[in-house]
């Protein structure tokens, strides 16, 4: 649902915001949307949706299927996002460390950033390319359901966290009510253990362990996440070992990226949960 800013912000371009909100209406697995879908998901009038859809189509961000009378995302959306990914040097630096850890834990290691109510995956490596634990680059999942999202909330400063929490309370009240206990536990885990956890909240039989980088990269708080299937051999035994290995990997990535001075060659001591 499209919501205007609370204050009278003369710098806020409402028409631009409405157009971008329409592009955000597409969910994973949805190839096409009709005007009525945009109306339902944004709360905008039919006339406004029709005008914005026409403009976005002319600009290449939407494509109109005449026979189906529906819209699909256009190539402009993809080309607009690629410079962001290509410019993230941390992805190239982290990739070999992520691949090594994925092999060690027999799971997947991912890197993500927050976008509103969701976390977006910007890099991912897996011990098995066919593994269900490995998300695609560009995949989005709700902040509150992921260890990665909880680690982002734990890792940012108090003011930024409070703003994000208020947005989540208002924007996704059902998720807020359902996952608030897990979020509270994640905050305690992060304070005590330096990592946040999840089990089955996003996908059945998947353990998630997440840790944010200690310093922002290009003004963004990035989070590394490990995913291990709980029915694989040694999965449960690995859990006590995954978090310290992830923390050690992040220290090495930060050192390689010039974010810290020392290199960690062995996992730190880590109390059992």
Summarize the structure.
The chain has 273 residues and is α+β, with helices and mostly antiparallel strands. It contains nine helices and eight strands.
Task: Count the domains.
Answer: 2
| Helix segment tally | 9
Give the full name of the CATH homologous superfamily of the largest domain: GAF domain
What's the CATH first level of the largest domain? Answer: Alpha Beta
**Uncertain stretches:** none
Mean pLDDT equals 87
Proportion of β residues? 15-25%
Q: Any idea of the CATH topology of the largest domain?
A: Beta-Lactamase
Strand order of the largest sheet: 5-4-3-8-7-6
Alpha-carbon distance between the two ends: 40 Å
Reported CATH architecture of the largest domain:
2-Layer Sandwich
Helix percent band? 40-55%
Number of strands: 8
Radius of gyration, CA atoms, in whole angstroms:
20 Å
The profile of the biggest β sheet is: 6 strands, antiparallel
**Which descriptor suits the 3D outline?**
globular
* Class inferred from helices and paired strands: alpha+beta
Order of helices and strands: HHHEEHHEEEHHHEEEH
Please give the structural blueprint:
Layout: H1 14-23, H2 35-42, H3 46-58, E1 62-65, E2 70-73, H4 75-86, H5 89-105, E3 108-115, E4 118-126, E5 140-142, H6 147-155, H7 158-171, H8 173-193, E6 196-199, E7 206-212, E8 223-229, H9 235-256
Antiparallel strand pairs: 1-2, 3-4, 3-8, 4-5, 6-7, 7-8
Helix pairs in contact: 1-3, 2-3, 5-9, 6-8, 7-8
Domain HTH iclR-type: 13-75
Keywords: DNA-binding, Transcription, Transcription regulation
Organism: Paraburkholderia saeva
